[in-house]
Write a structure and sequence with these properties.
alpha/beta, Rossmann fold, Pantoate--beta-alanine Ligase, Chain: A,domain 2, 2 domains, binds adenosine-5'-triphosphate, binds pantoate, binds beta-alanine, nucleotide-binding, Pantothenate synthetase, Pantoate_ligase_C, EC 6.3.2.1, cytoplasm
Length: 281
């Protein structure tokens, strides 16, 4: 497995491979890898010849400086996991390599109304930061395909809007959410959960599963109310939102007959903010 710290080293590696027609997949990550990330690598291997995983904790998408500061960075462990998974290249630039003009360089694109809903409402400017870095990663790799997890449902939508904005010929593949045996969606931030938080964290997947399992039984308002009631009286758990939304634009669902419905949730469990979602139909 090759490790690249600069865009130019990465380009030098990829150029001859592209010339011989190899299909390139990019798997963007912020590191602290778990089996959710590895599932993206494995799925990429079914669609492409060369897999490049990027590891970069992108400062411009963090709205809470403490969140950025404590983001886990177990690089040796990450490299071992990627090597074991058969990833050919890892791109791990530093901040200056990705933001040569400083982190405040001008970037603003129209991502549509959905930018300001849900995660965008709680993490102001988050999706400008995400799309800014993903565009830089796309420019550095020029992949044929790129893999993103459904766990960050809104992120996938925003990245597709960014691709449309720049008319980039990259196929986005959305990968299913990988969960722990008890239902918790795998996430790098899960390591911050105390043993008690870890038990409480199950409320996210349980409330989502409730909505999926009982979708036919109740109307939308009752489904949401019953799902939100899961969060009542759990010590140290604070619900940011629970919504049943249209998966195309993340607007609240208007009726149960709509296509593409998804339930999405974000909650603080102890001091750790978690997100999760389940597709209803
Ligand atoms: N449990 C999971 N199943 C599938 N894909 C996942 C899972 N967790 C993260 N991903 C995807 O991996 C990619 C990189 O995500 P990232 O490095 O932010 O990890 P993360 O676990 O989501 O961390 P965190 O949410 O704590 O930042 C994203 O496309 C994300 O959606
Ligand atoms: C796509 C991404 C790597 C951009 O920093 C990040 O938002 C993530 O890990 O989901
Ligand atoms: N996986 C989403 C990255 C973030 O939380 O900033």
């Amino acid at each position: 497995m090759e490790i690249f710290k600069t865009k130019s080293a990465l380009k030098d590696y990829l150029a001859p491979l592209k010339k011989t027609g190899k299909k390139i997949a990019l798997v963007p990550t912020m590191g602290a890898l778990h089996n959710g990330h590895i599932s993206l690598i494995k799925l990429a291997q079914q669609h492409a010849d060369i897999i490049i995983c990027s590891i970069f904790v992108n400062p411009t998408q963090f709205t809470d400086p403490k969140d950025l500061e404590k983001y886990p960075r177990p690089i040796e462990h990450d490299l071992a996991m990627l090597n074991e998974a058969g990833c050919q290249g890892v791109f791990m630039p530093n901040v200056a390599e990705m933001y040569p003009d400083g982190k405040d360089e001008n970037w603003h694109i129209d991502l549509g109304k959905a930018e300001f809903l849900l995660e965008g409402a709680f993490r102001k400017g988050h999706y400008q930061g995400v799309t800014q870095i993903v565009k830089k990663l796309f420019d550095a790799v020029e992949p044929d395909i790129a893999m993103f997890g459904q766990k960050d449902f809104q992120q996938v939508l925003m990245i597709k809007n960014m691709l449309a904005h720049f008319k980039l010929p990259i196929e986005i593949i959305t990968c299913p959410i990988i969960r722990e045996d008890d239902g918790l969606a795998m996430s790098s931030r899960n390591i911050h959960l105390s043993p008690q938080d870890r038990i409480h964290s199950l409320v996210l997947s349980k409330s989502l599963q409730f909505v999926v399992d009982h979708f036919q039984e109740y109307n939308l308002a009752d489904l949401e109310e019953k799902a939100k009631a899961f969060y009542n009286d759990i010590d140290g758990v604070e619900l940011d939102y629970f919504t049943i939304a249209n998966g195309n634009n993340l607007e609240p669902a208007q009726n149960k007959e709509e296509e593409n419905l998804v339930a999405l949730v974000a909650a603080k469990v102890g001091s750790t903010r978690l997100i999760d979602n389940m597709i209803i139909k």
